User: Fold these one by one.
Assistant:
Number 1:
Amino acid sequence: MGLVAITPMKSTATDDRDLIDVEGGLVWNDQNFNTLQIQDHTLKNGNNPPRATSYELVPLRSGTARHTEGFTKKDFWVTRYNPAQEFLADNLPDYVRARQSTVNQDLVIWYTGSEHHENNSRAEDNDTVTVLWTGFDLVPNNLFNRTPFYP
């Protein structure tokens, strides 16, 4: 039995980071790894040189629901913080109509998680509550200048 040389193929994968510079909604693309990196340009860790601290919103998805409500048409929403606005998902399309800049602003990040209600599983119909889970992980990046477990 002879040896066969294996030539690795060049990777075609890319990790793009697009700045969301105006308010709006974004659609999840299940063909990509979709996360949302949330970063304040002034927050840095204690490294030398300091590195930007950020959090990455990583969705836990089992599907995508699109209903008649406007907020279900997008999966992520980015809005400028406005204390006069009520934090109601139904109002999201109205909050982003002006498409204001998000650069150097206090922001509110909205994530739309979907759940599938099986037929006849609604609490209102059966006097029971079916357990369904959706959510996201919020992963810190460059939070510390070193790991606390390694000298």
Note: DSSP finds two helices and six strands in the chain.
Number 2:
Amino acid sequence: MKQVVLVTGNSRKVGEAKQSCDLFDIEVIQKTAEIDEIQSHEPLKISEHKARMVYELLQEPVVVTDTFWNIPSLNGFPGAYMKEVAQWFTEQDFINLIKDKEDNTIIFSENITYFDGKEVVRFSKEYLGKIVDPRGTGISIENVSEFEGSTLGEKRAIGGFSHKPEEYIWYDFAKWYSEL
């Protein structure tokens, strides 16, 4: 069985990785590392920087993931700052931000970066959704972000993940990694 080291403190991200990697007989080993993450409007730049930093700390091939949120009617807000914004904003705050906007679109971008000390390999996928009245449990943005008829909070409430394994960006990574 192949193994891959996923560096994150987020158990949800580990679960999402495992659901796809399991399909390719890849064991996901979770590790954590304290680094200073850069902030940028370029999600792939953030993810690559993170991968290089954790590689330097751990001295082994690593994979990292980074999530980027974009509300087009708010000029791309909150972008890479979602982690902090979701701690400050309630569900109603997000709804209030777009209540006078015609467009309630939200885009969730998942970025995975693998770095083995020589080669950087990136995977990225965007998921188009909309901001709706709150449903589900979890952090504020997850309860107002609907993708394919359910909010992320509703999926989490029943123990699910944001997407089916075959539809998630982790599937693309696992397929590639299994062929190394």
Note: Strands lie at 2-7, 26-31, 62-71, 77-79, 105-115, 120-131, 145-147, 150-151.
Number 3:
Amino acid sequence: MPTSPSEHPIHSRAQAPRASEIAERIVLAARGYFFAHGFRSVTMDDLAAELGMSKKTLYAQFRSKAELLRAVLLAKFRSIESDLDAVMASSAKDASAALHQLLACMQRHTEEIQPPFVRDMRRETPELFQLVEERRRDLIQRYFARIFDHGPRAGIIRKDLSSELIVEILLGAVQAVMNPAKIEHLGLEPKTGYGAIVSVILDGVMTEKGRSKSADWGGRFRS
């Protein structure tokens, strides 16, 4: 039998969601700061002050800024995956619409990442970029491969190119350009690099019908 409130099972269950909510709140605030301003100049003290909480509470959830940054990146990819799942569910029978919406979704998520964050990732935590590359590769393989599989039947993707080959070309271009060192060297913003890659790849793999559909979308992803 429980002898005090802290030992009561109902009390224990009530505490778990609160800890989770605090962690989510911290990650959300850090995400806004990190992606917009970079993370080198943002301290845990800054975040605690912004959130109106003590440093003790902040450190109880995340032992270091690096640990918090990892949580922010994982939350970002969960958000992308959730949005892409919604796109695939809503456009399952229309490859052209699905491709358009997938590209629009990726564009929105890329726009959140500003140059200071890319700069700091290159200089401060290159090891975490490996996590970004792994998750990004998984997303491209899982979602865009499905579109490139169905695209030829819909008449928007060339039939003489396998979906596997198209995905590997896309992955190669993304890996070559969308990394901190190359983006900084070329003076690109992430959204600009992403848009250029998409434009070049689509020019190569789309049929005339696909290009016509792209024009109907307003040419948003084309140079």
Note: The longest helix spans residues 9-37.
Number 4:
Amino acid sequence: MLTTEKVTEVAISAAKEAGEYILGHMGKIKKISHKSGINDLVTDVDKSSEEMIVKRIKETFPDHSILAEEGGKSGSEKSGFTWVIDPLDGTVNYAHGFPFFCVSIGFAVEGEIKAGVVYDPVRDEMFSAESLKGAFLNDGKISVTGTDKVQRALIATGFPYLTENREANLELFRRIISKAQAIRRPGAAALDLCYVAAGRLDGFWELNLSPWDTAAGHLIVKEAGGKVSMTDNSPYDIFKKNILATNGHIHEEMVSILSS
């Protein structure tokens, strides 16, 4: 019988193995290429990490489908089970030796994310969640902050790879920075979401994301007691292009600022 506990066990094992590989090859990248633009990098490490994760999943769940950043869709969707994988979120950071990147693995049943893990190999931090069971950092339960005003909030964002798509977020950045206590731009959406869940950030928004960026992280935020939506407060799913994740207390205020 398939259980979320077994899924999470496999996801943690795969993420840990891939994370250790990534960390071990930091500074040893053999090949860097570009996808959508000069800022959208992919390395040989991304690809090898993804191969390791997919292999580990397929050993246990050969009939499940895969949606991964580098390899796209694979396997039959008849089972209704899909793994959504970002083998190295924060590739630009990684390529420059900036220590903020992770492995993200989400698990969906009929399109709904039921489990997810995000592993930061630099800090050896494994964030995880299963639907209706809470969110965890390693073995400890985590929860969002109680900050109730944007004025007292630490907010994070990210910017699209394509330069022409950055202007819209620059305007949103201008609005938020005039209201919030501070803004950070760490560069790995999956980890940004986990930092909201763990109470290190009060909120996070970003535009032009892909399913593998948020599949695991958005569940972790919700299971930590936070709220996730589109930036206009409409319902969120991983195939939407923008996201707003907060502790819940500042969500309406953030929507108001972003939508004004």
Note: The mean pLDDT is 92.
